Amino acid sequence: QEYTLIKIRCLELPASMQEKFADKTVFLVAATLRPETMYGQTNCYVLPEGEYGVFEMINNEYYVCSERSARNMSFQNMTKEHKQYPCLQKVSGQELIGLKLKAPLTKYEYVYALPMTTISMFKGTGIVTSVPSDAPDDWAALRDLQTKKGLREKYNVLEEWCNPFEPIPIIEIPGFGNMAAVKLVEEMKIQSQKDKDKLTEAKDKVYLKGFYEGVMLLGPCANMKVQDAKPIVRKQLIDNNEAAVYYEPENEVTSRSG
Ligand code: ZZB
Asked: Ligand 1: residues whose CB is within 6 Å?
């Protein structure tokens, strides 16, 4: 599986990381199959009870991600030393919640790291960038945080980290409008991010119809079909050093995430 790794720069660090990494360039890195949707990022998701690590990469960059993904990166000439991926420090998802971040391409000047309870630590980096306009899971989780005070309190999330961040229309899909995920989540009466089966169904629908019929609404690829825009936006992100190519061994993913 070929992913695009989106580099979301930390504008601040958790207390536990401040001593070692204060003068370093640190990113939360999120694996995505939809680089063309990065115009619609409103936040970044972490698994609160997930265990992440800080790893040194080439060019004096530091990535926060799962150790499993750092291992994969070490075989892809991304870490400082080939096949080496020493964990410089462990950090929990809960510690990352509330960090102020700079994400590429989105109109929001900065976004925040927020909790998502359905993240798999066995897929991608365990960090997920959020595009609620086009990813039903992302909208369900953001809406949960925006509307449920108890949930915010449980994970120490402040209202100002989620409520001002509205989904951004980025792709027009015939029949689904310009915020396909929002529309489907309402139409299918999806209750919360835990509504797994319905969310899978919604995701499959948006993926398929978006890829073949979606048209970009903004950026240099405006008016282009999603399938044509995808490689162009991806290349632009990589050329700007805002993203990297990342592969995941197929069988490992399926066997471990079950
Ligand atoms: C941005 C994005 C925008 C995504 C979109 C999807 C959509 P898949 O398709 O299930 O194999 N993702 C990545 N890592 C994880 C993880 N560890 N746990 C849970 N979700 C994860 O996986 C690829 C997508 O699942 C990724 O692409 C990421 O969300 C999420 F408009 O990134 B995506 C219709 C979907 N639209």
From this structure: 31-34, 37, 119-120, 123-124, 126, 128-129, 131, 134-135, 203, 206-207
Find the helix or strand (DSSP H, E) in which 92 lies.
strand 89-92
* Residue 52 CA to its chain's centroid (Å): 15
Least Cα distance to 199 among 114, 135, 120 occurs for 135
17-49 pLDDT per residue, tens: 999 999 999 999 999 999 999 999 999 999 999
In the chain, the largest separation of any two C-alpha atoms, in whole Å, equals: 52
Pocket test for ligand 1, best of 1, 4, 8, 32 (most atoms within 8 A of CB): 32
Of ligand 1's listed atoms, the one at least distance from the Cα of 125 is 17
Instruction: Provide the CA 19 distance to its chain's centre, in angstroms.
Output: 26
Per-residue pLDDT at 252: 62
Indicate the domain borders of the chain: 2-257
Q: How many Å apart are CA 159 and CA 152, to the nearest integer?
A: 8
Indicate which residue's Cα is closest to atom 32 of ligand 1.
32
Mean of pLDDT values over 5-10: 98
From the CA of 203, how far away is ligand 1's center (Å)? Answer: 9
Contact (CB, 8 A) for 208 and 160:
no
- Residue range 2-257, CATH number: 3.90.740.10
